[in-house]
Design goal:
alpha+beta, 14-stranded mixed β-sheet, 14 strands
């Protein structure tokens, strides 16, 4: 198999990218914040594999290297997600092609002194096998929860809650960096997206911001209303954990959904995060579906 026809993706490749992505049994797309209305297959660093005889795409890999968050500590690697991929081949040929495409795309990224942490969240067997062939290992898994309609009353303690303002985002990014590993961190740009799309609430203790939550309303089946909600984010500063602030923020989000007549609330968390799972289950959230593996590869 000749892999010499790998090159960077171009604007004129877009029709072929969509064709391959929609027609292949081995296709993948990751939307970090769940807000993409359509597949933006040109975003990121793209490597494509061309068939030299037919001039058609046989495969592609796209890496999304968002700007590095200024809230991360210097030693933390820069996170890069596998944004999309599709292959027309199967078996060992697909794994070899994916590895070559990934390495080509990786080499297009600028060198930096922090190193890179590449990650992909997927339950697709072909992609897991291809990632492992490219040197990825499973680091965790994401567990999904659902809560059906149940009456709930707000908690008035221990923190004061208010809606977030744009000026809150930089300190919230620093709080987020303290609360999560670099793999799961959200910087100010991510939080700005949450503030735009979600009910974004922060918790304060004696004027110090100690936590926040973001609840997105969904209206897929109700054009004039909302049929469900998703708790996109719940974070509490490590120094303020075990005070009940996470529970208070979560209950406030559930009360808001209840006021709107929403009877289903979804969320997800890392399988390794047992304290969060205990909190969710204590508020009648129930596991749904299988946990989705998260595979990572760090390059210094």
């Amino acid at each position: 198999m000749n892999l010499s026809s790998i090159r960077s993706g171009r604007v004129e490749d877009l029709p072929e990218l969509h064709r391959l992505h929609s027609s292949s049994l081995r296709s993948y797309f990751y939307d970090d914040l769940g807000s993409a209305e359509e597949l933006d297959l040109l975003k990121g660093t793209i490597a494509v594999l061309m068939d030299q005889q037919s001039d058609r795409l046989r495969g592609f890999v796209s890496l999304d290297s968002a700007p590095r968050s200024g809230a991360l500590r210097f030693s933390a690697p820069t996170k890069v997600s596998l944004r999309s991929a599709a292959l027309s081949s199967g078996g060992a040929a697909a794994r070899l092609q994916f590895r070559a495409l990934f390495e080509y795309a990786r080499r297009q990224l600028p060198a930096n002194s922090h190193g890179y942490l590449f990650f992909a969240m997927t339950g697709q067997g072909w992609l897991q096998a291809s990632l492992r062939e490219a040197g990825f290992d499973q680091s965790d898994a994401v567990r999904f929860y659902e809560r059906r309609s149940r009456s709930i009353q707000p908690l008035l303690q221990p923190a004061a809650l208010r809606l977030a303002q744009p000026s809150d985002l930089p300190p919230l990014a620093r709080l987020d960096a303290a609360a999560f590993e670099p793999m799961w961190h959200m910087g100010a740009a991510d939080l700005q997206t949450l503030q735009r799309d979600c009910r974004f609430e922060i918790a304060e203790l004696t004027t110090q911001t100690v936590g926040y939550s973001a609840l997105r309303l969904n209206s897929d089946d109700f054009p004039n209303g909302h049929d469900s909600a998703q708790l996109v984010r719940l974070a509490v500063h490590p120094q303020a954990q075990s005070l009940g602030i996470g529970r208070q923020l979560l209950v406030a989000s559930l009360c808001y959904a209840q006021q709107l007549g929403i009877d289903r609330v979804f969320l997800n968390t890392q399988e390794s995060n047992r304290p969060s799972q205990k909190l969710y289950e204590s508020l009648k959230f129930r596991k749904r579906g299988r946990a989705v593996p998260v595979l990572v590869k760090e390059v210094s």
